Amino acid sequence: VDFEDFVAYYDLSYDTIHNELVGYLLRRYKEDYGKVRTPDYRQVFGKAEEAKLTEENQDTIAIVFLSQVTGEEHHYHIFDFEIGKIIIGEGSESTILEDEIVGEADEQVKEEIIKLFEEYDAYSWKQSNDLKSEINIANGEAGTTTSWSFKVKFSDNTIYRIHGDTFTDETAPESFDLFVNDLKALATSSSEE
Predict the structure, then answer these.
(1) What is the average per-residue pLDDT within 8-23?
(2) pTM
(3) DSSP readout, the chain?
C-alpha cells in the first residue's frame, strides 16, 4: 500500500489519525484500489474560502454540486471536472458507488453548464453564507425536511454556495426550479451518450 496515497485519500493527518478506524480504512482502501476514486464531497465543500460566481471565474469551474433532501430521501447530481465524471446518486455524497458514476464530465459538458448559468442569470444569485444551515441540509435531516444546496468549486479551491428550503420558495433564485430541471437533464442526457 502506498502510505502517502492512503493518507491523502482519506485526508488523514497526525492530529486526526488517532480518531479514525485505521484498520477499517485500510481494508476499504485495498478493496477500492484501482477503482475510480471520488473525493468525500462533504469535505471538499466544507473547508474552502467563499467566492462569487462570475463570468470571469466560470472557466475555472472544477465541481458543480446539487443536493436535494425531500423527507427521507437525499439525492445529488455532481459534475466533477477534476476527475472527469458525472455522478447521480442518493444517500451520502461522502461515499460514491461505482454505479452512480453515469457519464463523463468534459469541456463540452462544462460549456453547457456555463450556458445554463448565462440563461438563468446565475451571476446575480445571492450567495449563502450560513454554513450551519447548509450543514443541516447536507446531513439530510430526515423526516419532513425539504431542502437544497447548490455549490460550485473553482480550481483555486474557493467555493460558491447557495441553499434553501424548496426550489420555488423565497430562498431560491428566480427560475431556480427551471435551472435545476435543466441541470438534471444535462446529467441524465450525458449519461445516455
Answers:
(1) 70
(2) 0.74
(3) --HHHHHHHTT--TTTGGGS-HHHHHHHHHHHTTSPP---HHHHHHSPPB----TTTGGGEEEEEEEEEETTEEEEEEEETTTTEEEEEES-TTS--GGGEEEE--HHHHHHHHHHHHHTTGGGSPPP--HHHHHHHHTT--SS-EEEEEEEEETTS-EEEEEES-TTSTTSPTTHHHHHHHHHHHHHHHHH-
